[in-house]
Amino acid sequence: xxxxHKTILTLVTASVMTTAAFAETGTERVQSAKGSVEALxxxxxNMGANVDTSVDLNGAYTFDQKAAVYNAKHxxxxxxxxxxxxxxxx
Length: 90
Hints:
By secondary structure, this protein is mainly α. The protein has helices at about 1-20, 25-45, 65-90.
C-alpha cells in the first residue's frame, strides 16, 4: 500500500513537471502548480494526514508570483509527505 502511494505521487509529480516544462502561458503555469498542490494534498489525505492546501494569493499579481506561491505550498506539503513517509518506514 505504501509503495502504491509513492508510485502514484511519483507519477503525478512527473506529469505535473512535464506539463509545466511545456506550458506556454502564465495561466497554464499557475494551473499546473495548483494541480500539483491539489494532487499532493490528496495523497496526504489518503495517508491519513490533516492537510491544508489553501494558498493566499493576495499580493501575487503576476502569473510568476502566483505560481511561486503554489510552489511554496507544494514544498511545504512535500515536507509533510516526507515526514509521514519516514514515520511509516520505521
